[in-house]
Every structure is written in structure tokens, then in C-alpha cells.
Amino acid sequence: MNSITKAPANITVGPLPGSRKVYVEGPMGVPVPFREVALEPSSGEPPIRLYDTSGPYTDPSFVHAIDKGLPALREPWIMARGDTESYVGRQVKPEDNGNASGDYLAPTFPVTRQPRRAKAGGNVTQMHYARKGIITPEMEFVAIRENLLRQQAREHVDRLRARDGVPHDAVIPDDITADWVRQEVACGRAIIPANINHLELEPMAIGRNFLVKINANIGNSAVTSGIAEEVEKLVWSIRWGGDTVMDLSTGRNIHNIREWILRNSPVPIGTVPVYQALEKVGGIAEDLTWDIFRDTLIEQCEQGVDYFTIHAGVRLPYIPMTVDRVTGIVSRGGSIMAKWCLAHHKENFLYTHFADICEIMKAYDVSFSLGDGLRPGAGADANDRAQFAELETLGELTKVAWDQDVQVMIEGPGHVPMHKVQANMIKQREHCGDAPFYTLGPLVTDIAPGYDHITSGIGAAMIGWFGTAMLCYVTPKEHLGLPDREDVRVGVVTYKIAAHAADLAKGHPAARLRDDALSRARFEFRWMDQFNLSLDPEKAQEFHDATLPKEAHKTAHFCSMCGPKFCSMKITQDIRNEFGGDAQKGDAQKGMSDMSEKFREQGSEIYRPSAAE
Amino acid sequence: MNSITKAPANITVGPLPGSRKVYVEGPMGVPVPFREVALEPSSGEPPIRLYDTSGPYTDPSFVHAIDKGLPALREPWIMARGDTESYVGRQVKPEDNGNASGDYLAPTFPVTRQPRRAKAGGNVTQMHYARKGIITPEMEFVAIRENLLRQQAREHVDRLRARDGVPHDAVIPDDITADWVRQEVACGRAIIPANINHLELEPMAIGRNFLVKINANIGNSAVTSGIAEEVEKLVWSIRWGGDTVMDLSTGRNIHNIREWILRNSPVPIGTVPVYQALEKVGGIAEDLTWDIFRDTLIEQCEQGVDYFTIHAGVRLPYIPMTVDRVTGIVSRGGSIMAKWCLAHHKENFLYTHFADICEIMKAYDVSFSLGDGLRPGAGADANDRAQFAELETLGELTKVAWDQDVQVMIEGPGHVPMHKVQANMIKQREHCGDAPFYTLGPLVTDIAPGYDHITSGIGAAMIGWFGTAMLCYVTPKEHLGLPDREDVRVGVVTYKIAAHAADLAKGHPAARLRDDALSRARFEFRWMDQFNLSLDPEKAQEFHDATLPKEAHKTAHFCSMCGPKFCSMKITQDIRNEFGGDAQKGDAQKGMSDMSEKFREQGSEIYRPSAAE
Q: What is the ipTM of this complex?
């Protein structure tokens, strides 16, 4: 395959319908981006600013060139800290790209930059700074990003009711400051995945007391690949709301394509390093060694990967616990390590070398995503001994990482029926302290291949409410094939629904702002506002126009489903107008109360003589 | 519009992929239908029989003619009871069809049949029989239909684990008998919607202790209509698993189109009679009268409608409680009655005439679906005074209906954030005793028009688990437009997911059978079995083939997502083969335990000297 010719011509740029990019002055003059949705003047409402993951791509004033990448936003912050050094990085080897050559070798990213690392013996993790009481620009950026919504909610306060929700173990303040973010990172309850070599990053936080985040997976495979194709998948994912993106590439050109992705990514990029390591040994799990793995970690640390999924909890003694399972081990990384363990009759080298891995990660500030290699792949296997034994080990490893101030989140399942979902959150807290939980779904039933974004969206919304900090999306193609662009969009929007539903249920102080604004628009037949405030404005308008295409209908005071005579909202408004509308709500209230008063005097037996009519 | 020319040529018939229709001898020789999925011989597993809502349409030996309708399955049962009489029915009037004429008048159904009703003073409801200790063929049919799955589960018992679930207030027996069904109906905890004039019906039950059911809405509107079009929507809905169908038609030809639907429907048909009544008074709510409504009830009872949504709980004194709402009254029927009440300054005539309505319904055995006319249309309005005041009244009316042995279910919301979902189920039980709950969603957020099958599927799965007996589907077009055939399919499958997830979580004894069988197929790379056992076999295979079209890949021992080297399930199987596969599980267990034993002796410190590798 030739990655270049296979690539689509363009990367998607430009704002979403009805939205414009706005910036709020941030740390060291760095602007913090938001997406502002203007409402129709008839609404008498101010514009609504939304959390914006889409990066510069949705700013018309930004001219994107895929071979130049994004601005090095964080460079001044990192230089100012003065605790890192640039050095001659590791040489890229043919095996880093699966020995692809000639037409088959994806080109290297044209702009080269020397990697940086902590000065000898240093530690440059956000957790390290936080524990030393240092508020970083990254923390300030996050604070502004998450708090503006709250300030806005207060401006809308007249329209908002009291805070309302069941937060479970979350403690969500009315206002957050950079120092509060620092405290959350210091105690390990939140992470800010931010490799010092990922200068293009717009920092974000993952933690129970922040907005629930979602991850989208991309990546080329043995079957298909392409630079612009992968970058477009990234841009497309964040356009719809992806907070982080994992590059799960296998096959050739892993190194080069990842470089193009990182240089063009404003969101944290995660990887599963063992995938590349396995490619380097020709796919033979038994041939993996610590040295090859270690070399792969350095390679990816230097490129700027922000978090690594590492399956260090798949311990030798746990593997027999999977023998009776319906679907055994379904994690790729988990099965690779299990095979290695059994072939060598040795403990997992990721476990035995865990402290060595921490040493590497703290020099670049790469966060752990401790992989759940023994997660259930079927409802029948949910919450079994193998799964929870591994979870206990992940808790043990969390403390090891925290001893070196390395940031950690914990991966969770998988396939779990509804009645077993909450136990996963409870046990994760029990064993892993406050380390953020990051789950894949879970899927609440196994019988709907082709609709697993939905089977998993149900479990994701529930576990998000219970306290999961980030939800890894599942697309409709799960179990069946490789997602295309449309699958990615559906997966991301489905997970934005789950994450937002969780924020609402937890009682996040600003979450309702958007729901209420959209519902008011719906009630007042402000169709364009309804479209523009929705998670997928294009889809919403497309569906509306399928039934009522005419422009006139965008202002029609009825829904196409019912037609004018049957539109409940129109009738309700008629009622309010006839019997005292919003304008004279007081009168309406009184008028109606008088009536019901009169009614009560007449007594309220169940039957009246039909003559009463 | 000319309904005939607009109609599609064909009604969808024929079995689903990999399935065949089988029948189990039922009451009075009437066969109870199931869908049997045969598995690949390599599985060594018996075929799996699934609950089948699709009616004769999926039986290749049945030749369907839309103008003849379905066989009169229940005729001998009803005649045998000898408590009904046929009579000259009400004359069809021009206004029954919105005064459509000429080309615009949909043709009448060619086969005419005199309606039947209870002999003077009689009562022919399933509840009436149940309370007299009579087991009807309808109850027997339901018992076989719901119990066969359990018998099957027992045959698979070696593969099944112990029952597992959190049933909340459900009491789900290991086995059910016709007499148990009778008891559930007698106490009002379940209903069997079965109008004596709907002879084509394959009886089903709606109740907390039965499988969770789903309803699909169809119906023509002012904008579009067509006989074959509506019948095809019905057939399409039940093909994917719709348990009941509501005809929400408005506009012209309501009477004639409903006749074609009923004569071709093996599932209960529900309606909202006030829609047709409103058409009869030209859409002017104030002009509605008890006489017009009563006449409409008789009209629909004679045709065989199985349940009526009646908004008798929208009482005059509750209407002022909606004035402060974000979206006021969003139920069509609710807003119509509210407008009538205010216009006349009188109590809702459906409330004052409720006992009269019961008198009519018990003569045909039409079940109540007590409408929640004041349900919330936005998360902000969820669980408010208006909603719960109406719910209390529905509880009061339930007792009135039960006094006359009329079957009742209660409609519920709507738009409800996750943390307020369970309160709806609890209050419904508190006020309405054990009458089955029938909810629309609920939607857990308002910000995703275009994806409201998902926002509502999340709430539906949860409330189904908590005890809701039937879930009314929502399609992707909700709030935006009229669902097309594909929307109906997506809506139904989404709700089958929600209902099945609820059955799993409640611990239904047979629910896991299908999940486990599909998961085993997945693990053993029996692709066709995986497709055929899924809720939408065509979609599953279509998605698979999009990536790996070749026939060979249907037997490929890897997933297209990962390719052979990265397929965790393949690796797990290699492990089992190398270290003792399923065949010698004992050995495997032992072999692996020995290893982990050895490992423990070595001690399990977190770090080992790297030399250990």
C-alpha cells in the first residue's frame, strides 16, 4: 500500500454550524479555546460557550498544513521550567516501521525537533510539580477550561434551578481554581497527560471531579494505512468531542505515522507500546524481551506520546484463572503477555520491571494507563477472579508509580451486565485509591454486534455516573470490522451522550446549561438553535430536513411529526397565551389556581353525571 | 395523496438469516411460534429457540395476502367461551376517515366481519376470567411462549451458571405455568392485551415478572399515508422484535388504514383514541365532547384495537403546575385535554367519565394504557409536581378499572436524567400498585437530537431493570421528523438491547442463554453463528464483510480489527492448546497451577533484578 496515494485530499477544518471559536486569556498569554454557539435574537439569551476539544482546526483564522503541524503551544512553559534538556534522540530503525521501504515506507514528518527529557535524576511530571506545590501553566489552562462553564452558568442563574444530582463519591466544587487542579493531581485523583515532547497539546484533566472525558481509538492496521487518513481520523474524532485519542496502530509505518499524528494533535495521544514491540519481533510473543520493550518506550517517549497502556497486571498466577472463561483473554496486550509468561514460565516482565518503567516515564511525563489485560470479553466472565485479581495488582502498581510521582489511571472493562457495573467502580476505588478509572464501555449485553456503541453506551453512562473519569468509545463496527469515518463520528457522539448524561446525574454545576438552552429552543421552535446546540448539528438538521426541507419550516411553530393541529408545544403555548402567557405568568398562575379552587369547592368525586358535560 | 400508488410493492416476508420457524403445540391445537437458530455442527450445541414476535410473515409455508389478512387464530377460543354475541356494528361515517373521498379515500378492507361484544351485562376481560379462576387459551399460549426458553436453558444447564441478577421488585420463577400467568393477570401485575375482535392476535403478556417488552409506534400523518406502507411498517417492526405496535395515525383515512393494520397484525395494536376524535372536530380541542369520544371508542373497540392510551389523569387543578416548566406539556393527548379543560373551565371529561369508559372496554377486553399527559419533555421538568400529581390520579383510576376487572398499564416518561430514573419506578409502584409500567425511554439528556434512540435507550435499559414492563421505542428521528423504515429498525433493535439488558440484570433464568451462545461463537470464530444469534444478523454480516468480504474470512480464525498476529482470542486458544485446551481443561488447570505454585515459592516481590530475565 502507498499511504500517500490512499490518503484523502483534505483534513476537515472550519467551525461547526452556528459556532465560532473564542479564546479566553490563559496562562502566559496562551489562549484557552471555547466553542461559542450564538442563539437567535428572539431568545433574548446570551451565546453559550462549550468545552472545545477540536483544537485550531475549527478556527477559520488558522491555516493548517499537515506537514507543518500545530503551533508549539507548550514550548515556553516547558522551557521556562528549566528542568529539561534536549539531546540527540534515539536513531529511528527500519523495524520501527515494520521494515517498510520504498513506496511502502510512509514519509518521515518534515519538521524534526530534538527530543527533551528531564535533566539527570530529574522528575518532570505534573504530579511531581503538584506535590511540590507548583501550579503549572498546564494546571491553569485546565482550570480555565473547566471553570468557564461554571461562570457562565452563574450568568444564566436566573434560569437555573438549584444544583441537583447524585455524585456518588465525586466532590464537584461550584468553582475550581488552578490550585484546586494542583491538589487533585497531587493526590493522584486526576491526571494531566502531557508528555514534555508533545508541545502541540492543549492540556486537559482526567479525574472523577472533572467533566467526564471520552477517548477515541484510531490507528492503521496490517490491512490499511495512510498518513492523511490517520490524521483525518484524529481531527474528525476531536471535532465531535473526543478528549483523547489512542493510536492503536499495528503493521507497518507505526513510527512515522505516529509522528504525523502527534505533530497534528491538540489532544493527548495514548498508545499500547507492546503492539509496536511485538511487530519488532515479527509477531512472536515469546520473542519479546525487556530490552526491546524498553527501547520502544524510549522511542515513543521521545515522540511525545502522552500515556501508555501497560499490561503489567497480567501476572503468571492469574492466567489459569481464565481457563474456564467463555471468551478467555480478550485484551490484545493481555493475551500477548500471557503467552509470554507461559512460554517462559516466568512472571510478566512488565511487572518485574515496573519500577524501571516508572524511571523512564517520569523523565518525559508519560502517564500510565494500567491495562486490564484480563478484562471480561463476555457478560458471563464479568467480575470474575481473574479480573479482580489483576485489579488488585494494578492497585499495588499504582502505589509504586505514585512513589515516583508518575501519573496513573486504571483501565476497566469490557463486557458487564448492568447489575455488575457498579461493583467495578467500587472495587477500583477500594484497590487503586483515587486513581482515575478509564473503562471500555462496558457492554451490557453480548447479543448486538453492529450496535455495540449502544450496548456499551448504556454501561458507559452508568459507570460514568458512578465515578469513571474517562470512557473509551466503542464504534458500531466493534467485533466485526474496522471503523470508517462515519463509525468514528457515531462512536464519539454516543460517548459524548454517555459522558454528559453522567455529568448531569453527578450534578455537575454547569452540565444542565446546554440541556436547558436546547429544551427552551425546542419549546420556542427555534429550530436552528436546537440544531446548533446539539452534539451533532449536521445530523439533526439533516433529519429535520428529510421530512420538512423548506426554509420556512425552520421557523414553523410545529413539529413535522404531528403537524400544526397536533403539536403539543404549540397547544401549550396557545394555552399560555390565552390564559396568561410567560409574560403574565403571575396572572396565569392565579387564574388557573382560581379555577382549580372553584373545582375543589365543587368537590372532586370521580364521577359526575354526564349532564355535567 | 393516493394511498395505493404511494405504497411499496411488497410486504417483507421470509425468515431471518440462519433461522427457521418452529411451532410448539399450544392450547386447543394452536401452535405457539418460535424462531430457531441452528448452530454450526462444530459447535456441538443444539439449536437455540428464541421468542418470536414476527408472526406468520417469517414462515415460508405461509402465503400472505394483505387483502386477506392473517388467520383468525383466536376465533375458536372466543366462540368456545360462549359469552359474546355478534351484532350489526356502528356505521362507518365519512368523518371516521377525515372526510376523505374519491382517490383520497383509502379503500376499505375487503373482508368484512361482524363485530362481537360481551353479552348484555357481561365481562370478557382476561382479568375477569383470571379472577374467576379460569385459565384461558390466551394464558396458556403466553405460558408456553415465555417458558420454553427456560426449558431450553435447563437443557443447556451444563453450560449455564447459577441464576444471577438483581431483580429489584420482580419475582421471576424458574418455571411458569398457565395458572401462574392467570395469577399475575388476576392481581393486575400483568396484562394480556387481547380485544375479542382482534382474532389474528398471538397473545403476549406485559408484566414485571415476564420478559421486558417493547412497543414500536407507526401511523400515517397529515403529511403522508398509505395502506401497504403502514402494514409494511408493522411487519418490519415485529420482524426486528417489536412486541406491540401503536398506530398513532392522524389526518385522513385513520379508520380504513387501521382496519388493514389490525387484520394483518399478530401483535397487540394500541391507539390514542383522542387523536381520531380531534380529527372529527376539525382539530379544535374545545369542540371535543364525551359523545364524540365515546363514539370513537366504540368504533375502535369493534375494529379490535387491543389497548387505548387515555389521558384521564390530566386534571384541571394540575394544569397550572406546568406553567413554570421549560417545555410545558409535551404529550399530544395531554395538551389537547388541558386545552379542553381550560377552555371549558371544567374537569377533564375522560376523568369524569372514566367509569363509563370502563363499561365499554370490559365488553371488548380493551386494556387501558393510562396516558401520562403531564410527562416531562425536558430533563429540567423531570419528577415535578405536575408529573407526580397525575401519577397519583392514574393510581386512583387504576383501582376504578380493576373494580370492573378491566386490564390496566400505566404510561411513564419521557425526559429524565439518570439520577431521577429510579424514583419514577418507585412512585409508580407506590401509587399504582402492581399495574405494569410502560415508559417512553426515558431520555437521559436533551442535547442529542438525531441520536435520541441512544439517549433514551440508556434510560430504558435502566428503568427496565428497575421494573418497567414495556419500553416504548424512540427512533433517531425523534423531535426532528418522521421515521422511515431504517429508523424503525434502528429504534426497535436499540430497544431490544435495552429490554434484554434489563432481563439479564434482573436475573431472568433464560436470558443469558443467547449471550453465552453468541460469546462462545465469537470465541470459536464461528462467524455465521455470531451473525445469526445477533439481534440484527444482516447488519452484523454487512459490517463484517465491509472489511473482510471473502467467504474464506467467515471461517477465519481472527478478527479483521487485529489481523492474525494480534487476535487475542486466537492467542488464548493457542495458549489453551499448548498448555491444555478445553479438551484437557483439568490438565491445563493443574499444569498452570503448578507453575503459579512454583512462582509463589520463588516469592512475589514487585521487583526482581533485571537479571531475572
A: 0.93
